[in-house]
């Protein structure tokens, strides 16, 4: 009852010897994630938390039969690390790093059309299938297993909404943080498609925010292609035009595109109830189940 | 990060794009001397990072020393759309027959760069995009190859640029793309690109914005950053502390972690009838000192009547945050503005226990915390 990751997913951690990588590799293992290797250039042969480290993702994937990687590599090297993951025999790469230059991501975006490996992120909290596996930095203790799929551009907003859901006994099938950057791998439509195909996801929560037109396109996708009901939330109603609200992607352009209003209207037109508060999102999920 | 016009022009000129002769001036006398040197007519242009300077009175065309002095006096020191004008660019006026638009930006929907060309230059290009979208020709570029010469030619000819100058305009477009790519720009734009009676093309304005996430590998451009933040002391201070901060006009100060959650907190303040004073994201894993700095920021905003602190810990730990809040507030004999705190996620229970309830109001849910802060702000106003 999940999408993309489950208890069998074998995970490589890129950057496992760094502060963040080491800490979160430990947290992931504690949660039950099957971390099978680390990949850090020049550190092959070492081990971290009892897991072998390889110099390349290729070797880690080959020797440990890995399916997925999580990337904790500083921004200056993250573009290269993503390319390395996409060029290795993996099904999934999850890039946590915040602050990857946009032009690096434009090149990654091109490469994504030439590989079967899926990318989640960058600048995202990762993905979790509660009770089975988490790839990323999400706090495992707030999640509970269930039938609500969740996809979000923001980390802490995801936690807030999950907290409201868990509080009412509404568990989650899988939660995916797709990231707050202007150019990302997996987008709303990709995630919605995966949830639509999952027999154990009965309702999907989609948390968007100002900037870009991904939410508008997702709304159209929902109207045309989804039987699974969707509830929504949009952050940034009070954001002034032209200001970057933390996320590099969260900016309302001067010409009025990317506003919260346009996204909420598009979702409402697609039959998606949009909560004014996170509590109201949980209300909507209860109604839809 | 936005470059000033004079900086962007220098970058363009260095790359071989023709620009008019110009000099930066910070006083009236400097401006007049520059105008005399360049020769009339000259344009005197406010160097502030905002669009629509001309309409707002920030650009004047002058024909004599007296006019130059008068214009410089009125523009230097003026308040232009909320920004203080500290310098002007004095620039030789171009006698043009046509005004074009050329620009490069990132099409985030497509995830690739796009070049744009229009013969409707010299006006707000976003208005053109809205009213006459076909007047702008778009050419997407594969970033792994860069812009092919044929792509520049195609964009220019499709846009209907006159044959006599098409080759030169295509050349400017390719140079501009290369600059955009080499500089990690998010936008590079010339509006207008002027065409003279002698079929010369000259960049009469220059816009260049750099990806802040790429400044680490653009040291020369990073040095051009204007830390004054357009004169907003608080936004400048936020830069020093390394916070994502946006100042707004309301009276409820907001501190939180994570862009989406902070935006949501702003929206809830509005939803419950209050007005947000700012967006302040302390980021992930914030330690006690950062928390204290954040409080200092929000307290320094004189518009703020109350503060709501909303932390949902993933990497950030509730006990660290609570200690930071206590230590920041214990320094005051009297708490300057009422503070409402809501902690959730990692170590929130420890955090709640640590918080000194003589100093702050503690609420358990986001909704309650926001409502309480709005009430406090209303009481202060009353």
Index terms:
heterodimer; A: 289 residues; alpha/beta; Rossmann fold; 2 domains; seven-stranded mixed β-sheet; globular; B: alpha+beta; Dna Ligase, domain 1; D-amino Acid Aminotransferase, Chain A, domain 1; 3 domains; six-stranded antiparallel β-sheet; four-stranded antiparallel β-sheet; elongated
Plain-language structure description:
The complex is a heterodimer of chains A (289) and B (382). Chain A has 289 residues and is α/β, with parallel strands linked by helices. Chain A folds into 2 domains: 10-120, 3-Layer(aba) Sandwich (Rossmann fold); 139-288, Succinyl-CoA synthetase domains (Rossmann fold), CATH 3.40.50.261. Chain A has helices at residues 19-31, 57-64, 75-86, 102-112, 155-167, 188-197, 214-225, 260-269, 278-288, and strands at 10-14, 34-39, 47-48, 51-54, 68-71, 92-95, 118-120, 126-129, 133-136, 145-152, 172-177, 203-209, 230-235. Chain A has 9 helices and 13 strands. In chain A, helix 7 (214-225) packs parallel to helix 8. Helices cover 35% and strands 22% of the residues of chain A. The model of chain A has no long low-confidence stretch (mean pLDDT 94). In chain A, the strands form 2 sheets. Chain A has a 7-stranded mixed beta sheet, sandwiched between helices. In chain A, strands 9-8-11-10-12-13 form a 6-stranded mixed beta sheet, sandwiched between helices. Chain B has 382 residues and is an alpha+beta fold. Chain B folds into 3 domains: 21-92, Dna Ligase, domain 1; 96-222, ATP-grasp fold, B domain (D-amino Acid Aminotransferase, Chain A, domain 1, 2-Layer Sandwich), CATH 3.30.470; 233-381, 3-Layer(aba) Sandwich (Rossmann fold). Chain B has 13 helices and 18 strands. Chain B has helices at residues 5-14, 28-38, 65-75, 125-131, 149-159, 163-182, 219-222, 233-241, 259-271, 288-300, 318-330, 348-354, 366-381, and strands at residues 22-25, 42-46, 59-62, 79-80, 83-84, 88-92, 96-107, 112-118, 136-140, 185-196, 201-203, 207-210, 244-247, 252-256, 278-281, 306-313, 339-345, 361-362. In chain B, the strands form 5 sheets. In chain B, strands 7, 8, 9, 10, 11 and 12 form a 6-stranded antiparallel beta sheet that branches. The longest helix of chain B has 20 residues, at 163-182. Chain B is elongated. The two termini of chain B are 40 Å apart. Chains A and B meet through helix 4 and helix 5 of A and helix 4 and helix 9 of B.
């Amino acid at each position: 009852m999940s999408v993309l990751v489950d208890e069998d997913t074998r995970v490589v951690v890129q950057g496992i010897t760094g502060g963040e990588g080491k800490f979160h590799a430990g947290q992931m293992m504690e949660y039950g994630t099957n971390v099978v290797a680390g990949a850090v250039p020049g550190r092959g042969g070492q081990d971290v938390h009892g897991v072998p480290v390889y110099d390349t993702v290729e070797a880690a994937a080959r020797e440990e039969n890995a399916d997925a990687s999580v990337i904790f590599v500083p921004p200056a090297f993250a573009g290269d690390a993503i390319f390395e993951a996409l060029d290795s025999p993996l099904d999934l790469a999850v890039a946590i790093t915040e602050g990857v230059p946009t032009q690096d991501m434009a090149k990654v975006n091109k490469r994504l059309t030439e590989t079967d490996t899926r990318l989640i992120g960058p600048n995202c909290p990762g993905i979790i299938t509660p009770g089975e596996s988490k790839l990323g930095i999400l706090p495992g203790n707030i999640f509970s297993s269930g039938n609500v799929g969740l996809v979000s551009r923001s980390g802490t907003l995801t936690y807030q909404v999950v907290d409201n859901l868990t509080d009412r006994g509404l568990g989650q099938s899988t939660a995916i943080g797709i990231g707050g950057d202007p150019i990302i791998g997996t987008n709303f439509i990709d995630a919605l498609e995966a949830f639509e195909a999952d027999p154990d996801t009965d309702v999907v929560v989609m948390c968007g925010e100002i900037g870009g037109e991904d939410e508008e396109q997702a709304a159209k996708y929902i109207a045309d292609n989804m039987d699974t009901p969707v509830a929504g939330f949009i952050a940034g109603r009070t954001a002034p035009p032209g200001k970057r609200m933390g996320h590099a992607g969260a900016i309302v352009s001067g010409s009025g595109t990317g506003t919260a209003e346009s996204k909420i209207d598009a979702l409402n037109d697609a039959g998606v109830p949009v909560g004014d508060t996170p509590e109201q999102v949980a209300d909507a999920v209860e109604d839809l189940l | 990060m936005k470059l000033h016009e004079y900086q962007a022009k220098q970058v363009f000129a260095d790359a071989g794009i023709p620009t008019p002769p110009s000099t930066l001036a910070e006083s009236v006398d400097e401006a007049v001397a520059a105008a005399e040197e360049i020769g009339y007519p000259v344009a005197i242009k406010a160097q502030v990072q905002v669009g629509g300077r001309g309409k707002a009175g920030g650009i004047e065309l002058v024909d004599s020393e007296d006019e130059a002095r008068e214009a410089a006096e009125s523009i230097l020191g003026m308040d232009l759309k909320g920004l203080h004008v500290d310098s002007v660019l004095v620039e030789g006026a171009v006698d043009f027959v046509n005004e074009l638009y050329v620009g490069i930006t990132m099409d985030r929907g497509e995830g690739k760069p796009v070049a744009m060309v229009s013969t409707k230059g010299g006006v707000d290009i976003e208005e053109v995009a809205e009213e006459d979208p076909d007047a702008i020709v778009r050419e997407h570029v594969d970033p792994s190859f860069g812009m092919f010469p044929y792509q520049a030619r195609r964009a220019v000819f499709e846009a209907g640029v006159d044959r006599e100058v098409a080759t030169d305009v295509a050349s400017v477009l390719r140079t501009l793309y290369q600059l955009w790519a080499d500089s990690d720009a998010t936008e590079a734009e010339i509006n207008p690109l002027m065409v003279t009676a002698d079929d010369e093309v000259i960049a009469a304005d220059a816009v260049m914005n750099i990806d802040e996430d790429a400044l680490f590998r653009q040291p020369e451009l990073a040095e051009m950053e204007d830390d004054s933040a357009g004169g907003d002391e608080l936004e400048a201070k936020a830069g020093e502390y390394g916070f994502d901060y946006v100042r707004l006009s309301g009276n409820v100060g907001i501190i939180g972690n994570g862009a989406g959650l902070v935006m949501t907190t702003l929206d809830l303040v509005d939803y419950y009838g209050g007005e947000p004073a700012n967006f302040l994201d302390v980021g992930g894993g914030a330690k006690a000192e950062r928390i204290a700095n954040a409080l200092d920021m929000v307290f320094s905003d004189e518009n703020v009547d109350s503060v709501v602190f909303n932390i949902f810990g993933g990497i950030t730990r509730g006990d660290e945050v609570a200690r930071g809040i206590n230590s920041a507030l214990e320094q005051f004999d009297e708490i300057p503005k009422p503070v409402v705190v809501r902690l959730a996620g990692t170590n929130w229970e420890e955090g709640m226990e640590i918080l000194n309830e003589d100093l702050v109001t503690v609420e358990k849910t986001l909704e309650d915390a926001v409502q309480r802060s709005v009430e406090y702000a209303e009481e202060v106003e009353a």
